[in-house]
Amino acid sequence: MRTNRVLMAVVTASVMAITLVGCGDEGDTPKVPTAGGDKASGKTAAPGAGDEVTAYVSAQREWVKCLRENGVDAPDPDAKGQVDFGNNAALKKDTKFLNASEKCASLKAAVPEGLENANQPKLTPEQIKVKRDYAACMQKNGAPDFPDPGPDGTAQGSEWDQTSAGAKRATRVCAPIIGDPVDRPEGQG
Questions:
Q1: Do residues 141 and 174 touch, judged by C-beta distance below 8 A?
Q2: Which of 84, 161, 153, 88 is nearest to 121 (CA)?
Q3: Each residue of 127-157: b (16+ CB within 10 Å) or e?
Q4: Do residues 146 and 139 lie in contact, with contact meaning Cβ atoms separated by under 8 Å?
Q5: Alpha helices (H) in the chain, listed in sequence order
Q6: Cα(86)–Cα(90) distance, integer angstroms
Q7: Which of 32, 42, 132, 157 has the most CB atoms around its CB within 10 Å?
Q8: Which residues, 6+ apart, have CB-to-CB distance to 96 below 8 Å?
Q9: pLDDT 10s digits, 67-101
Q10: What are phi and psi of 41, to 5 degrees?
Q11: Is residue 160 classed as helix, strand or coil in its secondary structure?
């Protein structure tokens, strides 16, 4: 019985020590990751997706700040930089929002590719095969710079010349692969 109490005391002391080590006296300043790293300690963030997302979130905060300065009650961006305005249809008719958006357009950042890909649903092996087949078809039929999908089917770079005659031809030829009918009937009405 004495052994159990001693063992329990050692385990409790260990848990307390681990808990206290995690609680440093950092003051009331919240630790928020930044693209510049911790300048006070000289540590910088490792290059990569974290920096890209952090920079995007910071840019979104600046955009929201600008919207607020121009009379729009904009919510803070979430951890991935998304700003949820609720009813987007109503925003398209709100002149105050439209004017503020125009004034703040230069601050609106593009969603980083890594974050955009992370928000995509996981594709099935069949869907990934369709994306690979489509890319191969596009490349063979006039769009040699069409990007190959990654191993998980997500886009790997989106820079390709969509305006060339070859790209337009390839788009028509390869449309059936992705379920896009080539000869759509003209609308009536």
A1: yes
A2: 153
A3: ebebbeebbebbbebbbeebeebeeebbeee
A4: yes
A5: 2-22, 49-69, 88-91, 95-103, 113-118, 125-140, 165-174
A6: 9
A7: 132
A8: 70, 71, 72
A9: 999 999 989 988 888 888 887 777 878 899 999 99
A10: -95, -10
A11: coil
* Residue 88, H or E segment: helix 88-91
pLDDT of res. 137: 96
Cβ atoms of residues 146 and 135 within 8 Å? yes
Q: Which residue is associated with the tokens 């979104």? A: 60
Using only C-alpha atoms, the chain has a radius of gyration, in whole angstroms, of: 26
Lookup: tokens for 82: 């998304």
Query: Which one-letter amino acid corresponds to residue 107?
Result: L
Six-digit token pair at 171? 């788009």
* CA trace torsion 63, 67, 73, 74 (10° rounding): -20
Measured CA to CA, the distance from residue 7 to residue 14 in angstroms comes to 11
**117-140: pLDDT as tens digits:** 666 678 899 999 999 999 999 999
Task: State how far the Cα of 61 lies from the Cα of 109, in Å rounded to an integer.
Answer: 10
Indicate the helix (H) or strand (E) that contains 47: none
This model's pTM is above 0.85: no
Distance between CA atoms of 12 and 43, rounded to whole angstroms? 34
